[in-house]
Write a structure and sequence with these properties.
Blueprint (H helix, E strand, L loop, with lengths): L2 E8 L2 H17 L3 E8 L2 H4 L16 H8 L5 E5 L11 E6 L7 E5 L13 E3 L3 H10 L4 E3 L5 H9 L5 E5 H6 L8 E4 L14 E6 L3 H10 L2 H16 L8 E8 L2 E9 L6 E9 L6 H11 L2 H11 L5 H4 L1
Parallel strand pairs: 1-2, 1-3, 6-7, 6-8
Antiparallel strand pairs: 3-10, 4-10, 5-8, 5-9, 11-12, 12-13
């Protein structure tokens, strides 16, 4: 007799691609498991006219899925790991992290071949405070303009000429095959544009007392990615960085050593802290907390508090 598993997923194009990808992997590996999807519209997908930071942050992409699992309507949920808050509700568990894909951000334009070729004062679309902070380190002359909506909406705004260029995550565009119609595509190097916590990995959240969901999660888990993303999540939790915080953090393994890089600061790039730590893989587990302690001692909490006060303050009057 076949066993059944239900995956809770957002119903955005990218979320559905991810859920179907996991469905395929499960069905291929477990011959006797049938997988169905429970598509849920999250609040983060409904409110498209305001930056995420102003509607309460990333939990809006996971909350409804978690509620469905707690009601018994799904055994597991597939999330973009970067959208998963560091707090997981009781009764649920972040049980697996899939192997990380390409974490790059990508520059897209219909007029200019690269970030370097943008003219002085060019208008670049991004709502991410992390991207704003890092872009302005490289090109302080740029005018950064808010960019919301799903991926297709953002690309349409670019095509209509509302922006000279926009910056998005490469992996989503690649998965949805959306890069082919854009004349100029430049992958930004990771040392120039450090990714956010959990970028390009999927988080598999399960109902804790569900043995089949746990078995499936164990199969999907990638140990190296799980270690690196744990370091990132430990760091974010320790500095209490919310969605509206301009924080970039990335851990990766190279020749048995784990390197952890962090940048945080003001969204306008005026004040920035950056730091790098490394440890051999078997001693790397505590790097996230160690990095947090180091930066907190240098005043990171105060800097992030100031950053939060400045973030989107120009947009609050008409938007809320």
């Amino acid at each position: 007799m076949s066993k059944k598993i239900t995956i809770a997923t957002r119903n955005s194009q990218l979320a559905l691609w991810q859920a179907y990808h996991i469905k395929e992997r499960i069905e291929k590996h477990f011959g006797d498991v049938e997988v169905e999807l429970n598509e849920i519209v999250s609040r983060g997908d409904k409110v498209l006219d305001r930056p995420l930071a102003l509607i309460g942050g990333k939990g809006h992409f996971t909350k409804e899925l978690e509620e469905a699992m707690l009601r018994g309507e799904a055994n597991l949920a597939v999330h973009s790991l970067k959208d998963v808050p560091t707090f997981i509700p009781e009764g649920l568990e972040l049980a697996a992290i899939t192997a990380r894909q390409d974490q790059s951000d990508v520059f897209l334009s219909h007029k200019y071949a690269s970030l370097q070729e943008l003219p002085q004062g060019a208008v670049v679309g991004t709502t991410s405070l992390r991207r704003r902070m890092q872009l302005l380190q490289v090109r302080p002359d740029l005018r950064l303009k808010d960019l919301r909506g799903n991926v297709n909406t953002r690309l349409r705004k670019l095509a209509q000429g509302q922006y000279d260029a926009i910056i998005l995550a490469y992996i989503g565009l690649k998965r949805l095959d959306l890069l082919k119609d854009i004349p100029y595509v430049q992958k930004l190097p990771l040392d120039m544009m450090i990714p956010p916590m959990g970028q390009a990995a999927l988080g598999i959240e399960i109902v804790q007392n569900d043995p089949l969901a746990r078995e499936v999660a164990q199969f999907l888990n990638d140990e190296t990615t799980a270690l690196c993303t744990k370091i990132e999540r430990d760091f974010i939790a320790a500095i209490e960085a919310g969605c509206s915080a301009p924080v970039a953090c990335n851990a990766y393994e190279e020749n048995g050593e784990v390197v952890f890089r962090v940048m945080l600061g003001m969204p306008d790039g005026s004040e920035v802290m950056s730091e790098q730590l490394s440890a051999m893989r078997d001693e790397a587990d505590g790097l996230g907390v160690k990095m947090a302690e180091l930066l907190i001692a240098k005043g990171a909490m105060e800097l992030l508090e100031n950053a939060q006060e400045c973030a989107f303050k120009d947009e609050r009057p008409e938007r809320l």
